[in-house]
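Technical appendix A lists one of the benchmark inputs used to test multi-chain prediction within the project. The record comprises two sequence entries:
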Amino acid sequence: MVTKTEENQLNRLESQVDNAGGGAWEYLCLVRKLKLRRSDKVLKHGLSILNNPSKRSALGPEEWTLYEQVAVAAMDCQSLDVAKDCIKVLRKKFPDSKRVGRLEALLLEAKGSWELADKAYSSLLEDNPLDQTIHKRRVAMAKAQGNIPGAIEWLNKYLEIFMADHDAWRELAEIYVSLQMYKQAAFCYEELILSQPTVPLYHLAYADVLYTLGGLENLQTAKKYYTSTIDLTGGKNTRALFGVCLCTSAITQVTKGKSKEEKEGSQVQSLAAKVLEKDYKQRAPDKLPQLTTALKSLTLSS
Amino acid sequence: DNFDDDAVVDQQSEIFELWKMVMDRFALPLLIDLCDKAGLDPPPHEACRPGVCSEPSPKTTSVSAPDASSIDAAAEDSAPSSISIAEDSPPIQPPATSTLPPPDSPPSVLCTSLLGSETALSCRIMAEDLVLDTAIRDWVLIPLSVVMVLIGVLRYFVSKLMRSSQTPDVKIVKEGQMMLRARNLRAGANFIPAKAFRARKIYFCNEENGLLFVPKGQAQNPQAQMFSDPNMAMDMMKKNLSMIIPQTLTFAWVNFFFSGFVAAKIPFPLTQRFRSMLQNGIDLSTVDVSYVSSRSWYFLNLFGLRGLFSLILGEENAVDDTQRMMQMGGFGMDPSKGLSAEKDNLDITQHDWALPNFEQRAEAVLRKVVN
């Protein structure tokens, strides 16, 4: 997760670099550290440094890291020639390197020659069965080819070994949601919540999945998770507020004939509705009438 | 030469006579009178009779039997003189209150100085303050520290060169990740629904095929593996050697060159127990335990330079001897023990769903936003 200061610093550097104010190297370092995906900017500014021999030699040993970064960015922007050049330079310098081998396989993947890339990855994995990035590349390749079940299979195998990698769990959860396999997605989101309980994003996604699954128990749980999201975000998350209202109305719909217990949960719903109205009034006043009618229909149906 | 000796002795006796006169005829009577007039206790007998000692040594006041009559005689001697002084002065004031200097007079100072020096000598033989030569600081303390820092840096670089690339075992990585996941489960147990928690708990702790369950037979493996696997054994050997050899060499060097003298003083007092440990080369038993030999400076550096190394070499590379020494003890049962520990921890974890609280908190938050 990127912190606020880092975000500010990044934006500042970005604007500075875009306006030709220097500081390209710090920008590139920051992007690399935070693992951001700003491939076009990285490519432009990285190339400007690399093509300038004096600046290049000023970098010293960091030059090769820059080559690697630019190569990956070039592949992302589909300028494969640039990437090939960078990789050639790296290969000349480090003839026996696994990192360079990885880049070459990445190039094959970018070109679209899936079988060759697959072979390259498998051979790399034989040498080093614990390379996380290569595993992930394989998953990504399967996904790019449209082979979602294959991607799921690879990802599961990866998670069997590296079960504490929450990024992988997140990827798996999203794949499951795209395939409408909500139960498995719920499991993945639970894993995410376990590893990072204070991130409201996961609570929200989990609540969405539970609401989609339906059923009284799931609806009640979903409502609880929506409220926890509200709590974690200080009431600013519109989606969670809507979720609370929808859940409450759905619950009352399901329990309409069953038990006449007065639940005090309606307070949350009315409060959420009020906050929504206030929010819309502030930010999108022309949509306010639609909102009020929608909310009324929810409460009416309950 | 005899002639010289005689002259010296004569001079000494003359000086002694002079001193006796001043004492007996002037200082002491004045002191007694002052004490009388001021209403203080008369000075003690030792001070009154100093003159009986054979040697002219002003410091030692040997106490002979105070001769009461001689004291009175001295007093009487002084009395008429004082009275005569009083009479001689113009009769403006009555003789009882003669003009006298204030009581904080030289005689009392002389008296107390005589007393004080004697007491001072008698009590403080124990803790004299040794003054340590600054050369010790320049040539022992600083070079020793510098040498230890340099050896540490050297060791770091050597270990970097000699480090064989370890291919971590898949099983070990898997176990490590499993432990992380189990720990996360324990930490976040209250955030997921009870059903989910129970399902995961069974998954981990199930007796037959639970992930964390390590049957007894396998528990022995890591240690046997440690010794049979040549790579790991070599690694351990290398690590241990790289620590033991420099330590031994430095210790021997310190002992050889820097022994037999006091190197430093510890600022706080210590008990006698520490004497054998800290004062190894010093063979005097009366020296205060706070004065330590250079061997203890070596040990102090050994344990204390870790902070400095973490500054110089970067955070994780601190050549931490104390931790390594502790690790030497616990040899290899770590993985399986870790797993069973995690399993036990997970077994006893109760599930207390925290989400209902969140609901109330959300209410409060929303209320605040609305108002």
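Residues 216-233 of chain A form the longest helix (18 residues). Residues 1-95 of chain A form one domain. Comparable benchmark entries are summarised in Table A2.
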